[in-house]
Amino acid sequence: MYSTLLIVILMGAYLFYNTSKKVKFGPRPQWLEKMCAQTMFVRTLSIVMLLFPFGAILYLQGFGAGFFAFFAYFMCMMSLVVLLSPYRYFKLYPILGLYVFSLCVELLIS
Fold first, then answer.
1. 26-38 pLDDT tens trace
2. pTM, whole model, 2 decimals?
3. 53 within 8 A of 70, measured Cβ to Cβ
């Protein structure tokens, strides 16, 4: 459950980061270039993507702890995006592999 929530937060943070006007991007994938040309749509989509984990974390952990935990997760994911995006480490297969591995570990523990 938390692996899925964290990957959705990561995707929302990555989309939100790519709509920035201040960042000078290198070559980006074609789909991302087309999508980020519509800034308002992508920002709205990323906020909607962030609202799903926010609601789920609030439900799972309660209001106080959930509110704090979501913003801690969001800060962590934004830090990952800001640190790793310039190096072009955000590719589909490594992130998908990390997600599958963390999901397996999560299911094995619980």
1. 788 888 888 888 8
2. 0.90
3. yes
